[in-house]
């Protein structure tokens, strides 16, 4: 067995429980892995989480469609919330693991959310078994629908902040190949990107392909728009800033000899700040409307936001606090993974209460060429990543809850 670093100092008291619950934690992980459910459809997973929390003594409250929140009160002290997500992706698994999800399901835990869930349940049980070693309140929050960006918003809109007591901080982690080896940590400031996904409908006027002069061709308008949108980043954004614009889908017409009435574009943008995001999306709208006006479209284009993720900035003080604890516990394995252009809805949970947050990564594989998250072959090294992820939760919350 590959060992993750043992907890030391005042956290060493938790090691016997971590060892004793290892088999249960691995069995849970394999069960979640073999029972993947898509965003906002995680009924079976949610039920299992609630049952496990109740069995180890947590007060369990469902929040939203499938969200679950377990609260363990242990005397006076701070309150810390730790969030794990648990939805899967619409990808057929091709890992070859002996606990692989059935490829016929067409879905799998290709992003490590099963690991997040099992690790948090494991840490929650360890805390329940060792109440003598800490004081305060621990909130184990299990969030659905991260992959679509709907889950955190659903919990927030369903009264999370009114139902669950306000924590002093919200913490979270993600396993993945974006962290070298089995590293643990992150950095302050922008870590992931805010994202806006927009469906744009361009309305022309259909006609026969042999008589293009009798209509207004939305395909040509769409082509001009797609080319023009590329100048937003190359000519409208400071090269020192990160911004990505992608036209990911174009749909219009069914026949090679017919000019359709409309064309649909699906566009996504990613930036590190809301200010830059608003600028880029305003530029998109300006260009689309301008090209439609030039072409003489009789109907205004339509814009529908179909997905989004919030601005993501790790709080400086919270980052410094947790990273100091990581350095003490994990030594040279403590590092950051830089900044990514991917997106996450995790900040929405902390923002529901208006409290600071910190989100880190645990390296998922020793092989630097291991398949990346969202690959049908993505498979974290069960040993030692599950133990390491569990220990990282204990270490991360220790500055608030642990008795030194």
List the helices and strands and how they pair.
Elements: H1 15-20, H2 22-34, H3 43-55, E1 59-63, E2 67-74, E3 79-85, H4 113-129, E4 136-143, H5 151-157, H6 160-163, E5 169-176, E6 184-185, E7 189-192, E8 194-203, E9 207-208, H7 218-236, E10 243-251, E11 258-259, E12 262-271, H8 274-295, E13 302-309, E14 312-314, H9 316-330, H10 346-353, E15 357-363, H11 382-401
Parallel strand pairs: 3-4, 3-5, 5-15
Antiparallel strand pairs: 1-2, 2-4, 6-15, 7-14, 8-12, 8-13, 9-11, 10-12
Helix pairs in contact: 2-4, 4-11, 5-10, 7-8, 9-11
Binding site for Mn(2+): 111, 113, 147, 174, 374
Protein name: Amidohydrolase
Keywords: Hydrolase, Manganese, Metal-binding
3D architecture notes:
GO terms for molecular function: metal ion binding; N-acetyldiaminopimelate deacetylase activity. Its cofactor is Mn(2+). This is Amidohydrolase. The protein has about 400 residues and is α+β, with helices and mostly antiparallel strands. It has eleven helices and 15 strands. The strands form four sheets. The protein has a seven-stranded mixed β-sheet, sandwiched between helices. Strands 10-12-8-13 form a four-stranded antiparallel β-sheet, covered by helices on one side. A two-stranded antiparallel ribbon has the order 7-14. Helix 4 (about 115-130) crosses helix 11 and helix 5 packs parallel to helix 10 (about 345-355). It is elongated. It starts with 14 loop residues before the first helix and ends with a helix. About 50% of the residues are buried.
